[in-house]
Design goal:
alpha/beta, binds zinc ion, TIM Barrel, 8-stranded parallel sheet, 9 helices, globular
Length: 258
């Protein structure tokens, strides 16, 4: 059984074949997908998706740093309002993106800190998007000391930083990036880090696997991610699937698979 801890199945690119995809996912043993929110405008779709597929889909709500142009001035208050009525398995996705062209660090950090505080107060894990900002993120996580930790999705930090995340109760999400022949740093990390720290993800429709650049990525590819990790670690796919499933269930406090 496989668990895709990060895919954006609510995005319009899946409108035509979402149902078929989820049916096929179930047949392939992909028992759960976590779909994180990125902006308030998109939350209604997310809630509908969860209601349509309650056994397969868990959702999170959050304000993504790359969608700042979509967040109104009172976005944080509106998110808090939503959380009073919606059942979520985590807060996110939220984070810091240090690439050029993104909103200023100060603006991103303000939005992130408001959500970290919310996660701490509501005892929820967080789903983090961290690009070129791991040191700042680690500093903030130490300060907020989240009781439930969370996951650093599409992990791109160093092995040393991975240890710090793990100490703070975080799992590391691995997906399409590890399938690239030239991703040597990622390969070494997947080989050497404890499997207990890892969860699987696809980030569909983004982050296509090697050889699949001509189509949107899909949650079905989580099986190939597990196969690649198994190959790198010289362990069985079943072993990788079982442990990462357990990690994800612990992280999101899911005690039963339906
Ligand atoms: Zn994402």
């Amino acid at each position: 059984m496989f668990f895709d801890t990060h895919c954006h199945l609510d995005f319009a690119v899946f409108d035509q074949d979402r149902e078929r995809l989820l049916k096929q996912a179930a047949e392939m043993g992909i028992v759960k997908c976590v779909v994180p929110g990125v902006s308030l405008q998109r939350f209604p779709n997310l809630l509908t998706l969860r209601d349509q597929f309650p056994d397969q889909i868990q959702i999170a709500l959050g304000l993504h740093p790359c969608f700042i142009h979509e967040h109104p001035a009172n976005a944080v208050e509106m998110l808090a309002d939503q959380l009073n009525s919606a059942t979520v398995c985590a807060l996110g996705e939220m984070g810091l993106d240090g690439r050029p062209g993104m909103a200023s660090e100060a603006v991103q950090q303000m939005l992130l800190e408001a959500q970290l505080k919310m996660a701490r107060d509501r005892d929820l894990p967080v789903i983090l998007h961290v690009v070129k900002a791991h040191e700042v993120m680690l500093r903030l996580l130490k300060r907020y000391a989240l009781p439930r930790g969370g996951v650093v999705h599409a992990y791109s930090g160093s092995q040393e930083q991975a240890k710090h995340y793990a100490k703070l109760g975080f799992k590391l999400g691995f997906g399409g990036a590890i399938t690239y022949a030239r991703a040597h740093k990622q390969h070494r990390m997947v080989r050497e880090l404890p499997l207990e720290w890892m969860v699987l993800e696809t980030d569909a429709p983004d982050m296509p696997l090697e050889g699949y650049h001509d189509q949107p990525n899909s949650p079905l590819q989580v099986v190939k991610v597990a196969e690649r990790i198994a190959e790198l670690r010289q362990q069985s796919v079943q072993c990788i699937a079982e442990q990462t499933l357990q990690n994800a269930m612990d992280l999101f406090c899911i005690d039963q698979l339906s």
